[in-house]
Each structure stands twice: as structure tokens, then as C-alpha cells.
Design brief:
single chain, alpha+beta, Immunoglobulin-like, eight-stranded parallel barrel, five-stranded antiparallel beta sheet
Length: about 675
């Protein structure tokens, strides 16, 4: 096959009836070779790519077909101290690869320098060929089957369900071994029936794009379980497929949509799997290090590490911006993905001057017409200086709200000083979002997530137990607002178990009946435990995998979670589209909100600093709902204003009875009351 001029405006590879085209951007390259491999991953030919204006290297191979395995070798300057990392001995993955072949293996050859010399006698060029040890790109056929039943659940009705694709199905009862931990496992009708029956609307998947296991994990006999170590942003992870990953991923998305559920992908565009300056050269680093990554202005060989993962995407560079936007378009258009959760999303708005919501990349994502209508969810922080930006994202975005998490946890631990802060979080965090013209749904409320204790562990452990991660228990958050009620870990004491159960329900009442968008962590609905590990990123084993046998130990707990979700769904006052305030007054279209002491008196300024119990009442359109919360160690008599209230939920094992419009709520418990014009008969 002879290489002829291609289409430099089309990044990556494409195939048509006559052959295949290839384009690679590199401003650092002096020459680029396209390398073809046979089915045994043996290199069979090299072709010199043609240069064009704009630093796009391109070519077209007549007769080349879908399924062809390929990679690139980039010739150019190699001077690591100046951030120049071109080394043609390293086979490089196409950043736009949609399919991958082969497996990655840690070996000396995957480094562009000689690891044995690093730090001793300076940098030495590594001329070992990395091709036998790295994954390679595959020319993908055009996708002809359009995604079906893509959904558009309104934000005000959205309930997110965060899960790890592999861990969710590895121990699911009755699944065939070939399905466990794979796209087909999550697509199984019984798995989806469970999710659907909960009442959630949207499945938020931890990363499914191609990632690799870090070297230090392999040395410890561990694997990357969460997937936040992306290598290829356009390709689904092959370990989740039995056959063709693209086809099986599409089948999974279609099945989830057929079940009436949205699919939200967690994406980590903030860094790549190449790590710091001493990491492997697999793709971006060897193609054009200084364009793809942010480096120190005074030391171009040193990466800016605002991610804590060794490198940081250069969000200022137009080609990096193109890659992010193109990837989002691809997943949404070709597969019907309904939205994205952006890991360490502040990186996408960072320049050398810091974070700004008007950053070109954030604006491109926000305003792109092909992404219009998709859900955009930011994790609004990163480890870098000034990295905490909760409430600062553009109006189309929702954001993970860790202040909701910490406030809810602290309140139910009995911290009375949290009450005023709790009211703000119950209200949808208007203090954080309303001033920017945003709605309550912008606050993604959660009490647990993949990062931290599970709900069961939150009430069973006072300390993290991360020894299995191999970092001497130094990793993971130490300040968790957790408790154990006298026994660290599992207990067979009925009193302790009952108290822990009530605490879990109190947290879910707070989560699911607050204004905002709730996110439930998979497994919390039945009590999954990670044995006190609050950073299970490396626990691709029974610690991280959901233990479905827990369902049988307390099925009533799952029923309670379903009932809470149904309450939220059936009573619109729990999911208002706009903020209401006590001073707003009432009208035919505007609900009212009131904050009350248990005795029915309105909360005054002096009360917020000393109270431990609270009654929140929302009314509108002939309906009223009341949320009763008591985190103290003694009972309170609650007297909601008016008549005809009915108890529809409580964290107590037996529902309290309204007597003369008074409800006695014991210590550390919660309840929900409702009424409507029909007085419930």
C-alpha cells in the first residue's frame, strides 16, 4: 500500500470504500511514521506521513481496511529537561483511537529514557522498541446503527445512581460467568430490573474509557478498579468486553435506555495514564509533550501536577480542547450517552492564571450545539492551588456538592452548630448557586460516593482501614464524620445494629427529600460494606465488588429506600425547579417555605445557634410536605402548623402516631409528613 495525501482536517483514522485515512497532530515532530501491524502484532510496514499547515501529519492508504492495527513513531527533538520527548523507538497510540488491540505490559522499553540512569547520571535515551509491550490502535469501521431511545430526563426529576460497571455485576446472583464484570453483565435484564425498581432515573458509570493499571499497583498485586487513569479517550475498555468492545458497549447503552434509564459517563480529561516526567511514553508525551501537558514556565521539563496524578491536561491548547469536545460528541452522538460527569473538572477551566468559568474549553463544552441537552456534571475541585470552585461553573452545569455531604453527616453525628448550614443544604444550596442564576438542580447532593466510606461503613467505622491498598493506611480521607456506636466494624449487638440502621435512613431521608439533584451510591440501598476501606480504588476484588447477599439480611431497608425515592417522585415540592424563600410571599404559582421549631414556632435568628431539631415545611398547589429532623439525644414533640397531616415516612422501625396533630420523634430520628386538599380521606 502506498501512502498518498489524506484529509488533515479529520483527526484520527477513518475508513471508506477505497481505503483508510490517518491524521496526527504534532507541533514537535520533524517526521512521523505510520506503522502497520499484522494480526500477530508484528510490524509489517512503515509509511512516512505527509506534513501540512497546522502541524497535522496525514496520509491515505488505498486498500487499507477496517481492523488494521497501527501506531505512530514520531521523530523530533529529545531533551527531557526542555520538555521535548520525541523518541521514534516508542510506538505511540493515536489519541483518537476508537478501538485498541493487544495488552499493555510494564517493561523498560515503555519509557523513553533509561530508567536505570534517571536521577543518577541524567537523562539517557532509551532506544528499546516499545511496540511489543503497548496497546495499538485499530482502524474502526463506520458505525451504521444509531443509538436508540436516548432519554432526556428533566433535571428536576433526575435521581443519579453511581456505580462501578465491573463491581456491580461481579457478584450479582444468577449471572453467567461470561457476563460478570462486563458490559453485558450490566445490560442483563435482572440487573436492570433491580436498578429500575429502585426508582432512580440515571445510571452514572465510573470511567469505561481505556485505562491502564499503574506500575506500583502491579508491583503490589493490585489493579486499578475505579478507572481514573485514562489512556484512550475515544475507546471503551476491552477488559469489560468478551468480544468487540464497541458493539458490547453500544448494546449495554441500548439496554439501559430500553429500561427507561439514562446513561451518564464519568470522564477524566484532567490527566492521562502517562503520569509524571518519569512515567511511560505511550501516546501524548511522545507525540507533542508541550502541547498536550501543562509544564512549569521556568522549567519545561517539570509537569504542573494540579491533578495529583503526575500530569495535567493543557486545557489552554486548542488541540487539547478539540480532543475533549470531539470525544464528548462521539460518545453522545454515536452511542446515545445522556450526559457526563467530569472528574476534577476545574482542570478544564484552568490556565496559568487559575480557574475561570469563562475559560474557552468550558465555554466550548457549554455552548456546543451537538452537546445541547446533555447533562454536564462537574466535580468542582482539584488538588491544585485555588482548586476548590464549588458553585463557580457555568449555568448549564450541575456540580457535586461536598458541603451537602459533610453537613448532613455532621448534623446526624449530633453537631448542633450544623443546623443553619443544614438548612442551606436542604434548601438546595441557594447560597452557592442562586446568585449565578442557577436552579436547585445544579446542586448534586450526596452523602456517599465511590470516593470514601459506603453508607454502611460510615456508621460502622470511626477510622479508615485502607491497609490492603499497600500505602500503610496513609491514603484516603481521614476526616469522614463517621462513627461506630461502640464497636469498630461488624457487630452482632441488636441495639447497635438498630442504631446504625436508623442513622443510615436518616442520611437517606436528608439526601432524597432535599432540594437539588440526589445521587445514591450503588449498594447503599442494601448495606454494602468495604470493610472500612474508604479509598477502594485498587480493590478489584470482593472488597470493592458489591456483596449482593446483603440484600437478604434486611430487605425492608431496600423497601424503605424505594419508598423515599417514590415520595420524591410523587410530591413535586421535594424537587422544585426554582428557589423559594421565606420572604418571597405566596401566590398561585409560587410555593412557600417555612422553618419551624418542633413546637410549631418559626425559627428566629437566635434559635439557629442552639437548636438540634428542625421542621421544614413546603406548601403549594394545594399540597404541603413537612420534613422533621431530630439529631439530639432526646425526644421532641413536633407540632406542624395546620391539620390533616399524615406520616408517610420515618427512619424508625415503627411509625410514630400523630395524636392531636402532635408527633413525638425519639432521639436521632426523622420523619416526613404530607397533606393535600383531599386530606388523604
Amino acid at each position: 500500500m502506498k501512502l498518498i495525501p489524506g484529509a488533515p482536517e479529520i483527526p484520527g483514522s477513518f475508513v471508506d470504500a477505497e481505503g483508510a485515512g490517518f491524521t496526527l497532530f504534532s507541533a514537535a515532530a520533524e517526521a512521523v511514521e505510520l506503522c502497520l501491524f499484522d494480526t500477530q502484532h508484528r510490524e509489517i510496514s512503515r509509511h512516512a506521513m505527509l506534513a501540512s499547515s497546522g502541524h497535522n501529519w496525514h496520509g491515505y492508504l488505498q486498500g487499507c481496511k477496517a481492523g488494521q492495527v497501527y501506531g505512530y513513531r514520531v521523530h523530533g527533538p529529545w531533551d527531557p529537561d526542555r520538555g521535548l520527548r520525541c523518541n521514534p523507538a516508542k510506538l505511540l497510540l493515536d489519541p483518537y483511537a476508537r478501538e485498541l488491540a493487544g495488552q499493555f505490559h510494564w517493561a523498560e522499553a515503555v519509557f523513553d529514557y533509561q530508567p536505570s540512569a534517571a536521577g543518577n547520571t541524567g537523562w539517557r535515551l532509551n532506544e528499546l522498541d516499545s511496540a511489543p509491550y503497548v496497546q495499538k490502535a485499530v482502524v474502526s469501521a463506520a458505525r451504521h446503527s444509531a443509538p436508540r431511545n436516548s432519554l432526556a430526563v428533566p433535571w428536576s426529576e433526575t435521581i443519579l445512581y453511581e456505580c462501578n460497571l465491573r463491581g456491580y455485576s461481579m457478584r450479582f446472583p444468577g449471572l453467567d460467568e461470561s457476563l460478570r464484570g462486563r458490559f453485558k453483565g450490566l445490560a442483563h435484564k435482572e440487573v436492570l430490573a433491580w436498578i429500575k425498581a429502585l426508582g432512580v432515573t440515571s445510571v452514572e458509570l465510573q470511567p469505561i474509557q481505556v485505562f491502564i493499571d499503574e506500575a506500583f499497583l502491579e508491583q503490589r498485586g493490585l489493579r486499578n478498579y475505579w478507572g481514573y487513569n485514562t489512556l484512550a479517550f475515544f475507546a471503551p475498555e476491552p477488559r469489560y468486553a468478551a468480544g468487540n468492545a464497541l458493539d458490547e458497549f453500544q448494546e449495554m447503552v441500548n439496554s439501559i435506555h430500553d429500561a427507561g434509564l439514562e446513561v451518564i459517563l464519568d470522564v477524566a480529561f484532567n490527566h492521562t495514564a502517562e503520569g509524571d516526567a518519569l512515567g511511560p511514553t505511550l501516546s501524548f508525551r511522545g507525540i507533542d509533550n508541550l502541547s498536550w501537558y501543562r509544564t512549569e514556565a521556568g522549567d519545561r521539563g517539570l509537569y504542573i501536577n494540579d491533578t495529583g496524578c503526575g500530569n495535567t491536561l493543557n486545557a489552554d491548547h486548542p488541540k487539547a480542547q478539540d480532543l475533549v469536545v470531539d470525544a464528548l460528541r462521539y460518545w453522545s452522538h454515536d452511542f446515545g450517552i445522556d450526559g457526563f460527569r467530569f472528574d476534577l473538572a476545574t482542570i478544564l477551566g484552568r490556565s496559568e492564571l487559575g480557574f475561570k468559568a469563562a475559560h474557552p474549553l468550558l465555554q466550548r463544552i457549554t455552548d456546543d450545539p451537538q452537546l445541547n441537552g446533555l447533562k454536564l456534571i462537574a466535580e468542582p475541585w482539584d488538588p491544585g492551588l485555588g482548586g476548590y470552585q464549588l458553585g463557580q461553573f457555568p449555568p448549564r452545569w450541575a456540580e457535586w456538592n461536598d458541603r451537602f455531604r459533610d453537613t448532613a453527616r455532621g448534623y446526624w453525628q449530633g453537631h448542633s452548630a450544623q443546623l443553619h448550614e443544614l438548612a442551606r443544604r436542604l434548601h438546595g444550596s441557594a447560597d452557592l448557586f442562586e446568585g449565578f442564576g442557577r436552579s436547585p438542580w445544579a446542586s448534586v447532593n450526596f452523602v456517599t460516593s465511590h470516593d470514601g466510606f459506603t453508607l454502611n461503613d460510615l456508621v460502622s467505622y470511626e477510622r479508615k482501614h485502607n491497609q490492603a491498598n499497600g500505602e500503610d493506611n496513609r491514603d484516603g480521607q481521614s476526616h469522614n464524620f463517621s462513627c461506630n456506636y461502640g464497636v469498630e466494624g461488624p457487630s452482632d449487638d441488636p441495639a447497635i445494629l438498630a442504631t446504625r440502621r436508623k442513622h443510615r435512613l436518616n442520611l437517606l431521608v436528608t439526601l432524597l427529600l432535599s432540594q437539588g439533584t440526589p445521587m445514591l451510591l450503588a449498594g447503599d440501598e442494601f448495606g454494602h460494606s468495604q470493610a472500612g476501606n474508604n479509598n477502594a480504588y485498587a480493590q478489584d476484588n470482593q472488597t470493592g465488588w458489591l456483596d449482593w447477599s446483603q440484600r437478604d439480611q434486611d430487605p425492608d431497608f431496600t423497601d424503605a429506600v424505594r419508598a423515599l425515592i417514590a415520595l420524591r417522585r410523587n410530591w413535586p415540592l421535594f424537587r422544585l425547579k426554582t428557589y423559594v424563600h421565606a420572604s418571597s410571599g405566596s401566590s398561585a404559582t409560587t410555593p412557600t417555605i417555612g422553618w419551624f421549631q418542633p413546637n410549631g414556632s418559626r425559627m428566629e435568628n437566635v434559635d439557629w445557634g442552639q437548636a438540634t431539631a428542625l421542621m421544614l415545611i413546603l406548601s403549594g398547589a394545594g399540597q404541603s410536605v413537612a420534613l422533621l429532623l431530630n439529631s439530639s439525644d432526646h425526644p421532641f414533640d413536633f407540632r406542624p402548623p395546620g391539620e390533616h397531616w399524615a406520616v408517610v415516612f420515618t427512619s424508625l422501625p415503627e411509625w410514630p402516631v400523630l395524636r392531636h396533630q402532635q408527633l413525638t420523634l425519639p432521639d436521632r430520628s426523622s420523619a416526613c409528613l404530607v397533606k393535600s386538599d383531599n386530606h388523604f380521606g
